[in-house]
């Protein structure tokens, strides 16, 4: 993995985590936390979407949408666990 790929990976994770924090009210984790939430969300969506037969396409915008949906799922699960 080159340095450019790593930078794109981190930027997509940061944007996805930030967007998920906006969509799920009350969950802002700062820059590093948003990157982690976005990356974990991308892994969740990367596992879940093919299992459901969903494809969002390719490219940077599709990657951000993909990771954001996964991050929202992650934040909702965290909220449910905290309530229990």
Overview of the molecule:
The protein is 81% helix and 0% strand. With 84 residues, the chain is an all-alpha fold. The protein has three helices and no strands. It has one domain (16-83). The radius of gyration is 13 Å and the shape is globular.
Provide a quick synopsis of the model.
By secondary structure, the chain is mostly helical.
Structural class: mainly alpha
What is the total number of structural domains? 1
What is the CA-CA span between the terminal residues? Answer: 40 Å
Structural Rg: 13 Å
How much helix, percentage-wise, in residues?
Answer: over 70%
Strand content: under 5%
Task: Please tag this protein with its features.
84 residues, mainly alpha, 3 helices, 0% strand
Please outline the helices and strands:
Elements (H helix, E strand, L loop, with lengths): L2 H21 L6 H23 L7 H24 L1
Helix pairs in contact: 1-2, 1-3, 2-3
């Amino acid at each position: 993995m080159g340095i450019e790929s790593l930078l794109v990976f981190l930027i997509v994770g940061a944007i996805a985590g930030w967007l998920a924090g906006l969509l799920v009210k009350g969950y802002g984790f700062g820059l590093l936390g948003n990157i982690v939430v976005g990356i974990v969300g991308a892994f969740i969506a990367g596992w879940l979407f093919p299992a459901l037969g969903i494809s969002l396409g390719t490219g940077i915008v599709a990657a951000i949408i993909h990771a954001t949906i996964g991050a929202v799922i992650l934040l909702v699960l965290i909220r449910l666990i905290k309530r229990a």
